[in-house]
């Protein structure tokens, strides 16, 4: 074969693949709108598909009285061509689900639906009959408020739906809490639908599947936090994944000077049984490390509102007879101990401790540096403990080789000192994105 023939063949191949590879509209949207804002229109980006792939267009409306959840996904697909189709998965009045799906290869950007008009008629916002059943009505990607809005149902609807829709695929991954009016009872909003375009849909109606928990972190220093209860409330709420429970974790570290209290509230991984426990990981005469962990499974049950849950079970500090050993004492989250105070250790102390504990989990990441008194034979504060409540813990004792995979103290802690933040540190500074 001559080089010219080979080039010609290559040229043909390249031309062919250029014909076959499509450019499609690309984009996703998943958002709740006031029904009065519909119909909507939109613009999208583009993407180049692999050879042989088509363009897909999916629009889904979940309509619930005054609100509509709009889901759009567009992009390349391996699915076969499919005529544009409007499907009423659950007809109104009351809760309704309707979709538009289309797969095409006839031209670039053929997935060109640009508004919700094909699915939206003004009649679908018909006013409900003034009398009859009332249902809590909600459409939310967070929780439905416990004392939510009760709205009258359209005439003839006698059942209240209370569930969660799980949507996955086509770049959409979401849980949608739904409460509203239906003609029939039970957990059957989807009416047998399992897929809408590339999106797999499921529903669950057991309240255990959409538990809402209090959520947030709190770090607090203070001379008295190991003796006097301090407030432990958080402003956030979080809807947990299916099967998860609520948890609250409180950790106290006291080296005899400026103790630290770390609190976390949120979801506990699925399969965790309900329980309440307190632990004394390390105690007098040396550094005190103690924790409280509570797991429960009803809405907002992680609601201990002050630190007495832990303090009440600590051994009362009998005035310790001072020994002869003196150690620097310090608990800090700024990478190093800023202002250790040299203290006289209680009788029985045999050496000084210096190290740090890395805390991660529940949206929190911090390295707590610790110096204080210690009694033989203990060298470690945490022994082999790897978790304190929802927090993963990793202790590094100075002078011992750091365990493999240890993380260096985070630089943003030093940055916080520069900003001169107060010593009560809240989530927002410390929180990692979930
Ligand atoms: C929806 O919009 C209408 C008119 O703009 C307004 O009166 C109504 O309060 C809104 N409803 C909700 C739930 O925001
Ligand atoms: C449920 O689905 C069936 C078949 O898919 C359809 O004929 C019926 O109208 C749907 N019911 C409602 C209430 O939407
Ligand atoms: C702390 O909480 C307990 C119950 O959890 C309550 O009895 C007590 O009064 C609270 N103390 C303070 C100081 O808020």
From TrEMBL:
Residue span, UPAR/Ly6 domain: 53-112, 132-214, 239-303, 324-397
Q: Which InterPro entries does the entry mention?
A: Fert-Immune_med_protein (IPR051899), LY6_UPA_recep-like (IPR016054), Snake_toxin-like_sf (IPR045860)
Which Pfam families does its entry note?
A: UPAR_LY6
Primary location: membrane
Matching CDD domains: TFP_LU_ECD_CD177_rpt1 (cd23623), TFP_LU_ECD_CD177_rpt2 (cd23636), TFP_LU_ECD_CD177_rpt3 (cd23624), TFP_LU_ECD_CD177_rpt4 (cd23637)
Report whether Cell membrane shows up as a keyword of the record: yes
Which organism is this entry from? Answer: Trichechus manatus latirostris
Residues of the signal peptide: 1-21
Q: Name one GO cellular component term.
A: plasma membrane raft
Alphabetized, the UniProt keywords read: Cell membrane, Glycoprotein, Membrane, Signal, Transmembrane, Transmembrane helix
As for subcellular location, the record says:
Cell membrane
Official protein name in the record: CD177 antigen
Protein's GO biological process: cell-cell adhesion via plasma-membrane adhesion molecules; cell-cell junction maintenance; leukocyte cell-cell adhesion; positive regulation of neutrophil degranulation; regulation of integrin-mediated signaling pathway
Span-the-membrane segments of this chain are 412-432
């Amino acid at each position: 074969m001559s080089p010219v023939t080979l080039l010609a063949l290559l040229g043909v191949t390249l031309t062919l693949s250029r014909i076959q590879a499509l450019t499609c509209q690309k984009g996703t949207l998943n958002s709740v709108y006031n029904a009065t804002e519909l119909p909507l229109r939109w613009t999208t980006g583009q993407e180049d598909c692999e050879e042989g792939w088509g363009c897909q267009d999916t629009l889904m409306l979940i309509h619930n009285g005054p609100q509509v959840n709009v889901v759009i996904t567009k992009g390349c697909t391996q699915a076969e061509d499919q005529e544009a189709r409007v499907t009423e998965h659950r007809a109104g009045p009351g809760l309704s689900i309707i979709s538009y799906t289309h797969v095409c290869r006839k031209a670039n950007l053929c997935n060109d639906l640009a508004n919700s008009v094909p699915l939206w008629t003004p009649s679908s916002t018909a006013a409900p009959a003034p009398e009859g059943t009332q249902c809590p009505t909600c459409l939310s990607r967070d929780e439905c408020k416990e004392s939510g809005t009760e709205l009258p149902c359209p005439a003839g609807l006698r059942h209240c739906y209370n569930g969660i829709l799980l949507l996955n695929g086509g770049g959409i991954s979401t849980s949608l809490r739904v409460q509203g009016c239906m003609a029939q009872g039970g957990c059957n909003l989807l009416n047998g639908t399992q897929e809408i375009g590339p999106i797999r849909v499921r529903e669950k109606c057991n309240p255990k599947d959409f538990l809402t928990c209090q959520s947030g972190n709190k770090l607090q220093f203070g001379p008295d936090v190991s003796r006097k209860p301090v407030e432990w409330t958080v402003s956030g709420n979080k809807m947990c994944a299916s099967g998860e429970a609520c948890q609250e974790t409180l950790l106290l570290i006291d080296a005899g000077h400026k103790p630290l209290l770390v609190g976390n509230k949120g979801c506990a991984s699925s399969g965790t049984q309900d329980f309440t426990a307190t632990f004394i990981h390390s105690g007098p005469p040396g550094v005190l490390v103690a924790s409280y962990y509570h797991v429960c499974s009803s809405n907002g049950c992680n609601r201990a509102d002050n630190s007495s849950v832990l303090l009440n079970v600590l051994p009362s500090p009998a005035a310790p007879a001072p020994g002869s050993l003196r150690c620097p004492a310090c608990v800090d989250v700024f990478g190093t101990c800023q202002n250790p105070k040299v203290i006289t250790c209680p009788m029985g102390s045999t050496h000084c401790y210096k190290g740090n504990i890395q805390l991660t989990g529940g949206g929190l990441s911090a390295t707590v540096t610790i110096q204080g008194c210690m009694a033989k034979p203990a060298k470690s504060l945490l022994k082999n403990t790897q978790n304190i409540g929802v927090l993963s813990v990793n202790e590094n004792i100075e002078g011992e080789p750091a365990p493999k995979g240890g993380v260096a103290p985070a630089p943003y802690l030093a940055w916080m000192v520069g900003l001169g933040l107060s010593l009560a540190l809240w989530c927002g500074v410390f929180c990692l994105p979930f």
